[in-house]
Structure formats: C-alpha cells, structure tokens
Fold this protein.
Amino acid sequence: MITGSIVALVTPMIPDSLEVDWDGLKRLVEWHIEEGTNAIVAVGTTGESPTLDVQEHMATIASIVEDANGRVPVIAGTGANCTREAIEWTRRAQQAGADACLLVAPYYNKPTQEGLYLHHKMIAEAVDIPQILYNVPGRTACDMLPDTVVRLSEISNIIGIKDATGDLGRARELIDSCPDDFAIYSGDDGTALAFILMGGHGDISVTANVAPRLMAQMCRMALAGEAEAAREINARLNPVHDAMFVESNPIPVKWAVAEMGLMQKAIRLPLTELSACYHARVRGALEQAGLLS
C-alpha cells in the first residue's frame, strides 16, 4: 500500500509558448524525491489535466515515470467522464509504466450511483493496473457515496480512494466501512492531519508542491501516532494550506512554486496568473512556514 505524502504535482510550462517544460518537470521530480515525498500523482487536477491534450497528458506521465525511475511510485491521473476514454487513458498509463491510476468521478454528466459503480467496474475489468477512486464533488457535481465506494472496494484492483470532500464524518464512515487493505487518502490538506489520525493512509496533497519535506514528516508522524509532533508541523503549514486555495487550484500553487524559484510562472487558459491582490498573502504564508528566505 502507498502511504504518506503524495504530491499532486504541478505541470511546469514555458512562458509565452505554454508548452510543457520537460526539463523543469524533471527538476521537480528530482526535488520531490530528495525532499522525501512518498509518491507522485502525474497529471491530476493540480497538473492541469483539463488543458493538456491527450499526447501531452501521456507524455507527461511517461516523463515522470522515467524520471522517478522506480524510486517512488507514480500514480497517473486517467479519469474521464467518458468510460471508453478513461479505459484508453488508463491502459496507456499502464503501458507507460505507472504504478497505479487515479480516476476522478465522472464530471458534468452527473451519473447515478449505479452509473458510478458500473463506470469504475468496467475500467477495472478492462485494465488490471491498481486503481484509486477520486471523489471531489465540488469540482465534478457528482458525489460518490460511501455505499458505492464499499461496493467498488470489493473489486481486487480498485485499491483505494482519494476523498476530497473535507468532511471528516465521511472519512470516518469510509475508514469504518472499507476493508483494512483499502487505502483511504485525504484530498484536502486542511483536514488531512485529522483524517490520518483517525485511520487514513495519507494525503494526496497540493501543499506538498511547496513543502514536500514538511508534509512528508507530518504524514509520517501522524501515521506513527505521534499526534503532537504532527500537529506542530501542521500548525506551521496551516497558512499555506489556506493560501493554496485563495483562487482556483492550481493558480496559487503554481505561482508559489515559481516564487520559490523551482519553475517559471506559466499557466494555461482558462486559468490565469494569481491575482495581484493575493501575492502578499501567498508569499507571506510561504515565509511564515520558512519556505521563502
């Protein structure tokens, strides 16, 4: 089971052309491994999956797999609101060498719970790579309910869920209802510590893009039951958790990673650069956490 701090990695781009910055991507992967990140999600929401075309999407996954070179697991974002498309992307991610895939609940078309079950069941049966469900109703307008997750947990290669509801009551229900070997990850940095302390297995994190070492330490301590030490780190990071969502993700986190000198400032429309009114707040949060000198 993959546990700990799992970064939802940003996709660096070149200003003006907005092409993927492959050298920059390689540097980010290397930095995360050096800093102790436990696993990398390639081309999730934070990686701008909605605006990468299929060729870029798959090339980014392949690049991260190659750069990681087996040192940490790579989880490929391959979800789609078309079941056939999700199967194809998942198959191609497996061929690229991904260790697992992260599949967001279908967005916009608002399937029923039975539709969600059949969608993920069909993908799991079509491609035998380990698969992690991803429930983020604030983005998808579709909420995968715990009963549906429990049904899907019975499928052997559906190995976990990223729950980004921020609802700790929901987290408790999932932890209590799913098998012990079914990984339950937080997808909400602000509540991730409490989530892990109640029995979750890690955090698929936006904050880890700017604070990988601290997030890895916090998750490790929480998993070991060292609650007070984990709380001390989380208190240091709380302003960062908040700052990363002053505008739609990944606007603030891409600006922050660039502000730290780790990549260039570039983001694709329809998202825009971080509004100037938030620069001081995001910079201040990074400084307060000791992430900027």
About this structure: The longest strand covers residues 158-163.
